[in-house]
Amino acid sequence: KTAAPYISTKPGDKSAPLVMIMKEKQRETFILKQGQFDQPGDKVTARTPDVLPKFEGYEQNRLGLAKWLTAPENPLFARVTVNRVWQQFFGVGIVKTPDNFGLQGALPSHPQLLDWLATDFRENNWDMHHLIRQIVLSATYRQYSRHRPKLDDPDNRLLARGPSFRLPAETIRDQALGISGLLTRKVGGPSVRPYQPAGIWEDLNAPKSHAEIYKQDSGHDLYRKSMYTYWRRAAMHPGMAVFDAPNRDICSVERPTTNTPLQALATLHDPTYIEAARKLAERILKQRPDAPVTRSFQLVLTRFPNDKELTTLNNLHRDRLAHYQINPTNADKLLTIGSSPTETSIDRPQLAALTDICLAIMNLSETVTRK
User: Fold this and answer.
1) Phi and psi (nearest 5°) for 165?
2) Strand intervals (E) in 33-153
3) Which of 10, 94, 167, 338 is 20 to 30 A from 115 in CA distance terms?
4) How many Å separate Cα 141 from the centre of its chain?
């Protein structure tokens, strides 16, 4: 109560702020028999597993564990952390097995680099921003990423070129929403349920009386970042599963990267991507209708198309426009996909044709690949 006036609260909120207070005596913890909370077994205390050294000399709590992990005599913590951050930027770590630094793990491709980055990370007070700056400002990261067949290093373990790998599942979806202007940038809040094919939850092996029905969200919740998507272990969202997202049954520090026809089918037919392409087409036709194909390419890939690319896309645009002018019902079907309203002031065959162009550009390998 004495400290309450000094703790910031919301304007006009007269309620007392909630403050977490540690108990003077630690709560007793027991092994639960068969996981039942009302069936306590042997009493246990906080310590490391038997396979690890004991953290003696430190507080037997989370703070002590943190001090033990970051102690100068512990060589692993800094190296493992640096390796995982490196993996985020290069697709593979300096140590190829990020979850195994033991005898059965892979040897580092550049041990001196790993040691230097780990030491620099520790000496700069474990500053993650400093570590990221060191990596992204390096000449290694800023190299040209095009594969050179003459180099006998297909996995780029020698770092002779810049990183090039497919974006993760969440980023592919968020990128499409961001390009189109649909992305909701709200931070925090409950999970959301975006577009999903019907019947996935209902077909699970569960009694019909207990089957949960997937109820799609509406409004801005449909376009929130993928990290807020409701995650059901028994039925992972198919848009995430097809791009190798883990099911979260266990902790995963490395994702496989596959390349299958199903991924292209998903991004070509998923309502999320079709709607994103339509909204991008609406934006272009309202702002710059004189060069829609070039503008579409520029907005998605942040560069101008070369002559060959521009000719191919212009031919496709001309073909799709002729198709929708002859078959206006097909244009109507395409433009009604998604929950967001369609701009009525734009010619529908023109909008449908440019939607196809935007969708094609958003499905290019360059669009979904980090280079």
Assistant:
1) -155, 160
2) 40-44
3) 167
4) 20
The rounded percent of the chain whose pLDDT value lies above 90 is 64
- 3 pLDDT exceeds 60? no
Residue 310 in contact with residue 294, Cβ under 8 Å? Answer: yes
Assess whether pLDDT exceeds 60 at residue 15: yes
Directed axis angle between helix 111-123 and helix 76-90, to 10°?
110
| Cβ atoms < 10 Å from Cβ of 220 | 13
Residue that the structure tokens 């990596």 belong to:
135
Q: For residue 153, what are the contacts with CB-CB under 8 A and spacing of at least 6?
A: 160
Q: Which residues are CB-contacts of 334 (< 8 A; sequence separation ≥ 6)?
A: 274, 278, 352, 355, 356
Q: Hunting for tokens 């993928």 — which residue is that?
A: 226
By C-alpha distance, which of 179, 198, 195 is closest to 278? Answer: 179
* Amino acid present at 330: N
How far CA 45 is from CA of 27, 42, 249, 286, in Å, comes to: 10, 10, 26, 65
Candidates 105, 104, 103, 131; CA nearest to 117 is 131
**H or E segment at 111?**
helix 111-123
